[in-house]
Design goal:
By secondary structure, the chain is α/β, with parallel strands linked by helices. Strands 3, 4, 5, 6, 7, 10, 11 and 12 form an eight-stranded mixed beta sheet that branches. Helix 5 packs across helix 11.
Length: 299
């Protein structure tokens, strides 16, 4: 039964029978047959089928919720037993919004110094993707925005506030200023993260609140792309100060606080709500809570 539920979760993630089968390491006919067996056992259709995957039925969505809970609890039980046998081991999968990457090493270094038997993987994703990966058991924890868009069924550990700066050429129109307004920042040729990123949606709302329309000349989902364009001295961007500091930009580029309004957003650790939590997640939460005051000062 557990395997069939895992197949269902994979199908929800991939939205394609072939890709879901590949992720699960089985053939597509075997995956399809297993899901049909699950439908037969439960006596209801779970998947809308056509020439390709269409979606889940209402019953399928309900079963999918249970599948995530059951598989998550089973994996947590296995991890708990392994911890009792040989201490804290396993792989901690973290998914992080791009602007939080400069501080994530403080958390991972703290975790690994206390629990050197674990492995850690870090992937950068949008806030929406982070919640999806937690929901589909593809990550143990995320670092994302806490106070801007709905988070769903997660537990949170607040870590620090992002504060936004204009990153621009020192010899540019606003380069000598000690602070700028959102209205003034909108007059520059901007390169920004694209709208799949919550950081961009926060910035867009700030412009709206300031009563201006800002049309970026360049958009990307990559901080590296933005950084390379900043180095030309032609483009400007808006990002948290800690991100700008981590880029080691030349002295010809300045980070200038944006005011009117001065904006900050709360960043924190999120984990799928579960009781009890798996041992790795429990350890991560404890370490994050201890580290939060230091991160708040650093940011």
């Amino acid at each position: 039964m557990q395997e069939k539920l895992e197949f269902l979760i994979a199908l929800a993630t991939e939205k394609h029978f072939g890709r879901a089968a590949q992720v699960c390491g089985v053939s597509q006919p075997n995956l399809s047959a297993a899901i049909k067996q699950l439908e037969s056992t439960l006596g209801v259709p779970l998947v809308d089928r056509g020439a390709r995957f269409i979606g889940f039925t209402a019953e399928g969505e309900r079963v999918l919720d249970w599948a995530r809970r059951i598989v998550g609890d089973y994996k947590a039980m296995r991890a708990d037993v392994e911890t009792m046998k040989q201490g804290l081991t396993g792989t901690l999968r973290l998914v992080v919004v791009p602007t939080a990457l400069p501080l994530v090493q403080r958390l991972t270094a703290t975790v690994w110094s206390v629990h050197p038997g674990i492995k850690i993987t870090i992937a950068s994703h949008s806030s929406t993707e982070i919640l999806s990966r937690l929901e589909n058991l593809e990550a143990e924890a995320g670092i994302t925005y806490l106070d801007n868009e709905p988070l769903g069924n997660v537990d949170e550990v607040p870590l620090y506030h992002e504060r936004y700066h204009l990153i621009t050429a020192a010899d540019g129109p606003l380069g000598a200023r000690d602070s700028v307004t959102w209205e003034e920042a909108a007059t520059l040729p901007l390169c920004l993260l694209n709208t799949t990123m919550q950081n961009r949606r926060i910035i867009d709302r700030a412009f709206v609140e300031a009563g201006v329309h800002a049309e970026p000349m360049l958009e990307s989902n990559s901080i590296v792309v933005l950084t390379n364009h900043l180095r030309t001295g032609v483009w400007s961007t808006i990002m948290p100060r800690i991100m700008a500091d981590s880029l080691l930009l030349p002295p010809t580029i300045r980070a200038i606080p944006i005011v009117a309004p001065e904006l900050s957003t709360l960043i924190g650790l999120v984990v799928a709500r579960r009781d009890p939590q798996p041992p790795l997640t429990t350890a991560l939460i404890a370490d994050a809570r201890r580290l939060a005051p230091e991160l708040a000062t650093a940011a």
